[in-house]
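#lab-general

N.A. 3:47 PM
ok so I finally got the sequence cleaned up, no stray characters, all 281 residues accounted for. can someone with queue access submit it? mine expired

B.Y. 3:52 PM
send it over

N.A. 3:53 PM
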Amino acid sequence: MMARHIVVGVDGSAPATAAVEWAAADAQRRGLGLRIVHVCEQWRFGDEATRYCAGTLAAAADRARGLTGDVEVTTELRSGNVIEVLISESASADSVVLGSRGLGGFAGLVVGSVGLGVAGHATGPVVIVRGPSVVQYGRRVVVGDDGSDESEAAMQYAVEQARARGVPVHVVFAWQMPIAPPYAAGYSTILEGAREQEIRMAAERVVPWREKNPDVEIIGEQVIGHPADVLIQAGGTADLVVVGSRGLGGFASAVLGSVSHAVLHHLTCPVAVVRPRKQQA
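B.Y. 4:20 PM
back already:
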């Protein structure tokens, strides 16, 4: 059964406000409800802290309702560990939207521990939004592709987002040239054959998506370079960059791959990290 609401986590910070604004606009475009969640970790500090938490939630709801017309906005005040609560919320949500860094983080961090923790373990897409506001270019949605299950799930989300926005999907495949050992005769010929095969396969993977989604312009680009560098460059003027949580080259035990981690820390536009739902227990 399709999830019919977006969850946005709030804590009163400027990035959280930007996340509310992004989530409200996304809910409006895609015909979804919006569930605003605040996790009050300070219940033990008494009524004053509880009132602060309730006020934070109410302010976020007011902001969301002021930006949308017919979106159903609901709120939930919960206690417990923030990461664990938001991961549990993701199980029944279309997606989870968070600010890049909350009130409790170190000022020098681009993405805080909550964002990284939720993105690494949540069910479905997690969108990380930089504050205090989001620039909309109205140009394209960029998605990384490496042929993994994670990138296929990322592609599905990217197509949905592009359709709702009326913009193209820019599918980026990057092949990084391995360093040839100086003693390996004929190694460059082998590498050239591998490069041609990988690029051909990447171009072929785009074709079925075009056939299944004729209403969305889908542009494939296959380049040589480090995937993180290529995605960061492509995302410079994107409205959204979508990546899988972990690609083919990552360690099986890693919850976030090096590419998704790098993209989260270097792009200023919203970034969606997507895990295939079938991976969830």
